[in-house]
Design goal:
114 residues, alpha+beta, HIT family, subunit A, 3 helices, 22% strand, globular, binds guanosine-5'-monophosphate
Length: 114
C-alpha cells in the first residue's frame, strides 16, 4: 500500500517543521495554519482515523493525548489555552487518512466550529 502524506513526513521523505518526536508519535507544524500556533501530532503507526482504532491501541491513543498536552505546554499554549481537534470522515473535515490531532492556539477560538 502507498504511504500516506504523514507517513512520508515521518520517514523524512517530505520536509516538515518538527516540534516533538519520540518512538511512537511525531508533532509538526501544519502547512496551512488556522491559528497563530497550529501543530499536528500523529502516531507513527498508520491508523487511518479515530473510528478505526482498536482496543489494543488504547495505550498509543493515551500517549498521543498526553503528548498533545505536553507539546501545547512546550509551545507556551498552556498559559492562554488551546484546542485539540480530531477530524473524522467527510463531514468531520478529514482530508489526510492518517490519524492526527490538531493543536490550535495563540488566539481565541470560536465555538461552535463552522
Ligand atoms: P484534516 O483536514 O485531515 O483534519 O487535517 C489535515 C491537515 O494537514 C490540514 O490542516 C492541512 O493543512 C495539513 N497538511 C496538508 N498537507 C500538509 C503538508 O504537506 N505538510 C504539513 N505540515 N501539513 C499538511
Amino acid at each position: 500500500m502507498s504511504k500516506t502524506l504523514f507517513e512520508k513526513i515521518i520517514a523524512r521523505e517530505i520536509p516538515a517543521a518538527i516540534v516533538y518526536e519520540d518512538e511512537s508519535v511525531l508533532a509538526f507544524r501544519d502547512i496551512h495554519p488556522a491559528a497563530p500556533t497550529h501543530v499536528l501530532i500523529v502516531p507513527k503507526k498508520a491508523i487511518p482515523r479515530i473510528a478505526e482504532t482498536a482496543v489494543d491501541e488504547q495505550q498509543l491513543l493515551g500517549h498521543l493525548m498526553l503528548k498533545a498536552a505536553a507539546v501545547a505546554a512546550q509551545l507556551g499554549l498552556d498559559k492562554t489555552g488551546y484546542r485539540l481537534v480530531i477530524n473524522n470522515g467527510k463531514d468531520g473535515g478529514e482530508t489526510v487518512p492518517h490519524l492526527h490531532c490538531h493543536i490550535l492556539g495563540g488566539r481565541h477560538l470560536a465555538w461552535p466550529p463552522g
